From TrEMBL:
Its cofactor is Zn(2+). This is Carbonic anhydrase. It comes from Anaeromyces robustus. Belongs to the beta-class carbonic anhydrase family. Keywords: Lyase, Metal-binding, Zinc. PANTHER family: CARBONIC ANHYDRASE (PTHR11002:SF76). Binds 1 zinc ion per subunit. It comes from the Eukaryota. Gene3D superfamilies: Carbonic anhydrase. InterPro entries: Carbonic_anhydrase, Carbonic_anhydrase_CS, Carbonic_anhydrase_sf. One of its GO terms (molecular function) is zinc ion binding. SUPFAM superfamilies: beta-carbonic anhydrase, cab.
């Protein structure tokens, strides 16, 4: 009779879930991958040494108060916030762009607001953003170009002022404006306006992360009610 493990392996031949002595289809590990597996063991050891039920508690469900929408850039792990697993619901893409009609970020926002009842939606831009820098070039970017065009549109809206700035300031300012635009797009989402009209506690705001210092700072675009949107429209 097959064990449970063997059953799974027969169904999914490429699984690494191999019983002792049985042929595995997984290729030889690379050093970095081996290192990550070792790191994982250490992370579990550290976590459970202070809180033996840490993972068991996580398995019961999630109750994050924050939805963090950031750039995919590897230099900004959500650990910059000092919060732990289970504390932050996350969505990331190139240059933290949130569009009004994007199914991907739209689904994340809907789930976060309607089901998780997060209290904060934070869009976090950053200095030295490759996506923002690419939007200032004329290079043909293929598939990625369609995404980057959204940042080019933000640039065009503010071209008059941005043109006057030095290269670093221009890129940083465009990152900020792109982040603010994403915040504007979020607060016009019916999921958000409906939550506010029902009295749900929810703040939508923009942050910038400075890669060169590791510091977070808030941008002047925080929305906490329908009244805040009305003020914006004036
Ligand atoms: Zn970026």
């Amino acid at each position: 009779m097959l064990t449970v493990n063997e059953n799974i392996q027969n169904l999914i031949p490429f699984t690494s879930f191999s019983p002792e002595g049985k042929k595995t289809y997984v290729k030889e590990d690379h050093d970095l991958l081996k290192q990550i597996m070792e790191n994982n063991k250490q992370v579990i050891k550290n976590k459970t040494s202070t809180n033996p039920n840490f993972y068991k508690n996580l398995a019961k469900g999630q109750h994050p108060k924050v939805l963090f929408i950031g750039c995919s850039d590897s230099r900004i792990p959500v650990s910059v916030t000092g919060l732990d697993a289970g504390d932050i619901f996350v969505h990331r893409n190139i240059a933290n762009v949130v569009l009004k009609n994007d199914l991907n970020s739209g689904s994340v926002i809907q789930y976060a607001v309607e089901h998780l009842k997060v209290e904060y939606i934070i869009v976090c831009g950053h200095t030295h953003c490759g996506g923002v820098a690419a939007s200032l070039e004329d290079e043909e970017l293929g598939f990625m170009g369609g995404w980057i065009n959204n940042i080019k549109n933000v640039y065009r809206q503010h071209e008059h002022d941005l043109k006057k700035l030095s290269d670093y300031d221009k890129k940083t300012a465009l990152s900020e404006l792109n982040t603010v635009q994403s915040v504007f797009n979020i607060v016009s989402n019916p999921v958000i306006t409906e939550a506010w009209s029902k009295g749900q506690k929810l703040s939508v705001l923009g942050w910038m992360y400075e890669i060169e210092t590791g510091k977070l700072r808030e941008l002047d675009c925080r929305f906490e009610s329908l009244d805040d949107i009305k003020k914006m429209k004036k």
